[in-house]
Write a structure and sequence with these properties.
Length: 660
Amino acid sequence: MPRDLPVGNGTVLVNFDSDYNLRDIYFPFVGKENQTVGHVNRFGVWVDGQFSWVGSDWKMQRKYVAETLVTDVLLTNDKLGLELTVHDAVEFFLYVFLRQVTVRDLRGEDRKVRLFFHHDFHIYENEVGDTAFYDPRTQSVIHYKGSRYFLINGGDDNKSALDQWAVGQKEMQGAEGTWRDAEDGTLSGNAIAQGSVDSTVGLNLDVPASGSTSVHYWICFGFAYEKVVKLNRIVSERSPGKLLQRTENYWKLWVNKEQLDFQDLPDKVVNLYKQSLLIIRTQIDDHGAIIAANDQDIAQFARDTYSYMWPRDGSLVTYALVKAGYREVGHAFFKFCLDLIGEDGYFLHKYNPDKTLASSWHPWVRDGKSDLPIQEDETALVLWVLWEYFAKFRDVEFIRPLYRRLISNAGDFMVQHRDPETHLPLPSYDLWEERHGVHLFTVGAVVGGLQAAANFAHAFGEFEQEQTYQVALNEIKAGMTKYLWNGKAKRFCRMATRTSTGYDLDMTLDASMYGVFAFGALPVDDPMVTQTLTAIRERLWVKTSVGGLARYENDYYQQVSKDIENVPGNPWFVCTLWLAQYYIAAAKTLADLDRALELLVWVSDHALPSGVLAEQVDPYCDAPLSVSPLTWSHASFVMCVVEYLEMRTRLLDKHSARDK
């Protein structure tokens, strides 16, 4: 089930699913230690002897308060005669999840309502040895194990105390959990449980006829009992409502710090641009890791998740944020990369948010021989975006300590890691992590990375080193046009496999082939680029009412249709936006930008109502597929919006100059 409405602050990340169940709680790293492991944490309502868990029986409108990371959820249950307005947020500075619930009567009667909040923690990502207890000192329920503490409390403006509570066992000997105890409207008050445990707490409200009453609920996160107690006191004294309001104000300030002229962009594109920036921020850990996605349900498909930092994804997300003017995120990301790069100048597959090496399926041995299990584009793109960062912000003091270990080290590796005969990069894994060979995308990225290394060497006055990098990248470009171009097909291949006499070419059309121009390997108006991108557009566009661009022909991942002629694969947001990026870069007139604008509108139309973008969508019903949100999808949208505005400004200036 796709995640919707992520809220976070760089240390705490909370996700909801499409039924508005709280599903993921990441702490103390974004992307590491999902303290619920994706289990459902329920939210229920009792009134007039009737009970309902919020879900499919409720009418829902799920979105954010405009330009914030505060949710704005409207829940209506005609059977109960109630309407609930809910605002959720992770406090922008404190390790606290806040929820405000306003209950409105729809029957014209005074009502006594009870709200129930259920917690299915798996602390340290397992259920063994947890403890939950009612703490009379704080009048709250606390879950803990080791150095992870979670304090749960609630109340109105006049008190901070729970009205009901129960802790108990789950997932053992037939025990379903304390959420069942809530369904008669009264909790048992059981005060402690250990092992595999859960809890449910209740708050009572008096709702006037045709009127409304508000109540607050919160979870404090910390590393010790004293820490969460202190946070609970802060919330109580400062008022959860005021903390929620200041969090709303903070995110409005954050997302509007750069005053862009959005020119002719439709409101829905502008709104998605801002919401994308905010959603990207929820997926970035304060220690510098930019996480690909944090949707636990994908583990059901592969027994692993996307909750890792891929240097490639991180680089492309950082590029989007650099274009949008957010330099601080780049600072943290590059420092993170500095600590990860190996002595030999390359990055491995992916990393955890705490800078440890993550899981991988790339072998260290191929055909009985030692082989580097890398995707070389990941090393190249870190350098490429680092130069983009420096070119925009000219932060010399920041770059200085990165020059030797990161820039020169990676540049030297890319020079050396080449075929001595063809001068092309040696085989590595592709950006889709499926194939081993020499990939057009990787070659384009390496050219971009080496150009960045040459630019830095020139800036630091190391002209011999600059020349080394420049010679290498020119040789790679020559090798690319010689060995990866198919004259008969009149386009590039996506991958080449080395043979004793040259290369065997894989001519499958792949959206990632846009990399031939994206990082500067060839000019966007080069006929070889034009012919390749034209073929991609014609073959990979999904010919259903949904539309969008597929990854490649006969894409097997999450495959919905075998009608390859009409549905070569599921529509991916990043791939569709790569096509938009091409249209923007190739535009010669304002009219040329219309094709890119159509794709920006397409993305806006296929986002969830909250603005969340999945990895891909169903080619027939438009439902989100795979992980949601995908950080890369949002970053690609941000990147394209900024590039669109930059190109439109240049074309307008050019037109004005001509008129003069």
